[in-house]
């Protein structure tokens, strides 16, 4: 922990973000709803966004803060406004994230790493199609298209210079969370099963992305 103290501003915001995000699983398990619950849901990633902004030293630092900010907006909008508005906020965040990761491409990758990057998008689309193909055609198309965007974000994170065991794995967990959502919506798995995976994978993924990107950029700014 001591080796990180030279770059990490406002560690208390990081701690509060973890408390907000982890504790929200209680609301998920109890199926609570309402305006206060929507804000509780938003608190974890919103505080990660504030923490990233406080630690931003350059344009890339501000970009990861924006990515997390769009994620927090999506968390709130999905329940407070509607599916399309929430998905639009997340989509904006994914586009900003892809731009950030492409600006920070890894100089070289092994053959297996390159293969994974190339396979993520078509594989995610195939899985999304398999999970939703028995539903409405429009819903299936939306699921496949959205999965392609999230997978592109995850692939670009894996191909970036940010730590794979933080940002890369976190982005893959984000993608897995969405695929579990489609498994529940498509009836492949019961929602009483998917609820144990969707939020934990999503929030842990966001936290790992934030930690990996912010630490790398902030350390370089000193």
As a whole number of angstroms, the C-alpha radius of gyration is 17 Å
The helicity comes to over 70%
> Helix/strand/pairing class, anyone?
mainly alpha
Number of strands: 0
> Any idea what the shape is?
globular
Termini separation: 17 Å
**Biggest pleated sheet:** none
- Low-confidence region ranges: none
Q: How would you describe the oligomerization state of the chains in this entry?
A: single chain
- What's the helix count? 8
Order of helices and strands: HHHHHHHH
Percentage of residues in strands: under 5%
The whole-number mean of residue pLDDT values reads 93
What does this structure look like?
The chain is mainly alpha-helical and 222 residues long. Helix content is 81%, strand content 0%. It has eight helices and no strands. The two termini are 17 Å apart. 44% of the residues are buried.
Short description:
By secondary structure, the chain is mostly helical.
List its salient traits.
single chain; 222 residues; mainly alpha; 8 helices; globular
Question: What's the SSE blueprint?
Answer:
Elements: H1 11-30, H2 35-55, H3 59-80, H4 83-103, H5 111-132, H6 137-158, H7 164-185, H8 191-220
Helix pairs in contact: 1-2, 1-8, 2-3, 2-8, 3-4, 3-8, 4-6, 5-6, 5-7, 6-7, 7-8
